[in-house]
Amino acid sequence: MKAGINLGPSRYRTRTWMRRLVLVAFAATLAHVAVDRLDRRALGALRDEAALEGVDDVAAGATWTEAQSRSLWHLAAVTASGASSALSPTELLGLVERAVPEGVTLVSVTLEPSLAEPSVLVEALASRAEDIAELEARFSSASGVAETRLLEERLMPGGELSVRLRARLSVGETP
Amino acid sequence: MRRFEMWWGRRARAGVAVSEHELVAAVNGGPLRVTRRSLPEGLVAPSAATPNISSVSELGKIAADALEELGVTGAPVALALPDLSIATRVVPASARGRRSELLALMSTNLSFPASELRCDFWTGRRGEVLGAAIRGVVVRQYEQIVEAAGCSLGWVDGTCLSRVPAWSEELSEVAGLHLRVQLQRGHYAMAVFVDGELRDLRVKLKSREIDKIHQEILRIPALHGEAAPSSVVVSGDDAEALAALSSGTVRDGDDGDPMTAALCLLLHRRAP
Predict the structure, then answer these.
(1) Is B121 within 8 Å of A13 when comparing Cβ atoms?
(2) What average pLDDT does the structure give for chain B?
């Protein structure tokens, strides 16, 4: 309820409302920023969840429509969160090129844009065990690589060594 | 915090009340401090139709001197104007309309051109509307005395008029007819509340015979279909004498000088 009669000029009556509008607009901006940050956190959680559920859906033989709609939804979530920029395929290939030493033959490179643990899977052939050790060491020391794991090492019938190596990438860092 | 309060509009601390006889200035940054100045005869002649102040510069100097004594510089200053300078009208809740309709209503029966009208409305808890109108040239004179003191304007209200919201708040849940009378040296204001709703506000010149006000008080209940008033509280000049006349019907509110009381209320309001 209004406090009373005010017969002052209208500019004096409206000034306080203008001040309040400015303060309310400022508060609304702060609230918007806070909500946006909360949304981004929620999207990060969704991103992790999406990574796990996406694999499970395929494994469990979910219908294509379900899997597709989930994937689209997850893709939208990841795009909104800005995480997709952390997995630039061109830069990943550059990382592989720098990490593979001479004497090692690259058989395949698989980019695994897993949302929880983006990684690169490398299959290679080498004639000497030292070359394999060098390959692993280079991946381990590369920037943007959080962890390197030698998944498999086999001796091929021709006497060559076949290896499968996974390099887990740091989320948010450019390799 | 101080700056925030200033921005949010909570620091209407100083006020000036003017009557035909004196100027009262008050500041409430802490305990209320009040200073008074007697005015020369004829300097202020309250009227709704004609300019009230014969010498704005002289009154401005008096106001500046009073505010300076209180240490007020540049702060918003509330103004309590003489009630006789303001035309009022009470619109019951049942007849209440849009602002444009209320403005049209206020424009009728004015003693000055409606184009020069400056008015404002206050709505009570029961939906009744109190309209107050003043002629632009009249209110500008009073504003100039505040500007002459180097201060900005806060609330601009009538001396008795400013008490209506507080009376309404006090009586909002009370049944029956209640009168609140504010007496000043030359005039009086009488507010009539029925079942918590403001029904009438009369501002009249006061005759020397205080008994005439008492007679009016006795006539009011019949006008509103009531047998007798549930309470009559008078305050200001001659309140004691009026209470003595009525053998218990009328009670002296004993809240001191009307101008200081008005300033107290205005200084406690949030900035407009």
Answers:
(1) no
(2) 88
Rounded to whole angstroms, the Cα distance separating B155 from B153 reads: 7
Q: How many CB pairs under 8 A join A and B?
A: 74
Give A6's contacts in chain B (Cβ within 8 Å). Answer: 120, 155-157, 272
**What is the pTM assigned to this prediction?**
0.61
Residue A52 has pLDDT above 70, yes or no: no
Each residue's pLDDT tens digit, B46-87: 999 999 999 999 999 999 999 999 988 878 899 999 999 999
Per-residue pLDDT, A37: 86
Contacts by B115-123 with C-beta closer than 8 Å and gap 24+?
A: B118/A7, B118/A9, B119/A7, B120/A5, B120/A6, B120/A7, B120/A13, B121/A5, B122/A2, B122/A4, B122/A5, B122/B164, B122/B165, B123/A1, B123/A2, B123/B96
What residues of chain B, 93 to 132, have a C-beta less than 8 Å from chain A?
118-125, 130, 132
CA distance B3 to B238: 44
* Token pair for A161: 């060594």
Q: Share the mean pLDDT of chain A.
A: 74
pLDDT at A115 over 90: no
